[in-house]
Design a protein that fits this description.
With 119 residues, this protein is α+β, with helices and mostly antiparallel strands. The chain contains two helices and ten strands. The strands form three sheets. The protein has a five-stranded mixed sheet with strand order 8-5-6-10-9. Strands 1-2-3 form a three-stranded antiparallel sheet, covered by helices on one side. Bound molecules: iron/sulfur cluster.
């Protein structure tokens, strides 16, 4: 059995959560959370961790040489490095607007990469 201590990031309170996992990595119990969101967060974090991805993409002909981008939704943590590799291959042509889709359905995750500023 494994015990994992997490801080819930679902709201600013930041409850300290303990998760007990069996030998197969399945969640046995979640304690320390004070609401259901904490339970969901802890189960997700221990079984299928996800992260928002932020980066920059090259832009030709714009005010600035790069534009900041982010994933529209969290991406499985184990795919973040490969997603960065895909993002680094992209060069946009100005003008770029906030919310423009830079990469659609990156690596078949169902998640788009979008611009978060103008260029
Ligand atoms: S468990 Fe609930 S109250 Fe505690 S930090 Fe998470 S979301 Fe906030």
């Amino acid at each position: 059995m494994e015990k994992r201590d997490l801080i819930c990031v679902s709201c600013p309170i930041g409850c300290a959560i303990t998760v007990d996992l069996d030998d197969n990595g399945q969640v046995i119990s979640v304690t320390g959370n004070t609401c259901k969101r904490g339970d969901s967060y802890a189960r997700q974090e221990c079984t299928h961790p996800e992260r928002m991805l932020t980066s920059t993409v090259k832009v030709e002909g714009g005010r600035l040489p790069v534009v900041p981008v982010k994933s529209a939704k969290p991406i499985p943590k184990e795919l973040l490095f490969d997603c960065m590799t895909e993002i680094n291959k992209v060069t946009l042509t100005a003008p770029v607007k906030i919310g423009d889709v830079v990469l659609k359905n990156i690596l078949n995750t169902g998640v788009d990469i979008v611009a978060t500023n103008e260029a």
